[in-house]
Write a structure and sequence with these properties.
Blueprint: H1 3-29, H2 39-67, H3 77-83, H4 85-93, H5 97-101, E1 105-107, H6 112-143, H7 148-165, H8 176-200, H9 203-223, E2 224-226, H10 232-254
Antiparallel strand pairs: 1-2
């Protein structure tokens, strides 16, 4: 069997695993696997376990195929953490800070539910980063030209698919306008997480950012209430921060060495 045929077989296996895993996770996410007295806890745990198990299975299968390096903790840790600080600031800003201190937002659920919600946010970041950055993005990079333009195209395509993936939330009764907003900001965040992954060569850095973004952005909505999230000050801060971090991430992307992709 020649090299091209082996690569095609490997790509077919990756794509097949991708779709099978996504279908299984989506199905399990809509099934109540446990019966806790607190229905919210029941829902969070039922969401978390399939995603974590699915992510682990994916890592094992991809390692067997030959992509073990993609999921190891690579690179200088401190340098990687310093690089993602702007992304962490974006994540924290996703929390309705002004609304919270103005008394327009708060948590009504028991404190222990916050700990479970942390696990749920991690499970989402863990599974989705493995699928969309650790697998889909690398598959695109492997197929597209090993140039800066090829890299940017791979980032764009994988982030677009990641954004469109959130259309499935329409089945949860979310309004069409809110779904479009979710698709849009998911696309933008996908761009940032892809750049972080390719620069640090560490999928765990993008998992941290993804999990933190979900936690700060959803904790009050999931476990409490929010009345008027986007006041004028919040909007101005968010826009300025988005511009500055976008410039920073573009600069980081320019420093990515496409010759290092083989290491992943």
């Amino acid at each position: 069997m020649n090299k091209d045929k082996r690569n095609n077989n490997k790509d077919f296996k990756i794509i097949l695993l991708f779709f099978i895993s996504m279908i299984i996770i989506l199905v399990l996410s809509y099934i109540d696997l446990f019966s806790f007295s607190n229905q919210l806890v029941n829902e969070m745990v039922s969401n978390s376990i399939p995603r974590i198990l699915g992510g682990i299975v994916f890592i094992v299968l991809m390692s067997i195929i030959g992509y073990k390096k993609s999921f190891t903790f690579n690179g200088p840790v401190l340098k990687s953490f310093l690089l993602i600080i702007p992304g962490l600031i974006v994540a924290v800003n996703n929390f309705p800070i002004i609304a919270y201190f103005d008394g327009r937002a708060g948590i009504t659920e028991p404190v222990y539910t916050i700990h479970i919600f942390v696990i749920e946010c991690f499970s989402t970041g863990f599974f989705e980063e493995i699928v969309f950055r650790g697998i889909l993005l690398l598959l695109l990079i492997q197929k597209l030209p090993k140039t800066k333009n090829g890299m940017y195209l791979a980032i764009f395509i994988s982030s677009t698919i990641f954004g469109l993936f959130h259309l499935v939330n329409i089945f949860e009764g979310i309004g069409f306008t809110d779904i479009l907003l979710q698709v849009g900001y998911s696309f933008l965040m996908g761009l940032m997480w892809a750049v972080v992954y390719l620069k640090t060569k560490n999928i765990w850095m993008s998992i941290i950012l993804h999990s933190a973004y979900n936690f700060f952005g959803l904790v009050l909505f999931r476990l409490g209430y929010v009345d008027g999230r986007f006041d004028n000050i919040t909007i101005v801060i968010t826009v300025i921060l988005a511009i500055l971090v976008s410039i920073y991430m573009f600069y980081v992307s320019l420093k990515i060495n496409v010759n290092d992709f083989e290491k992943l």
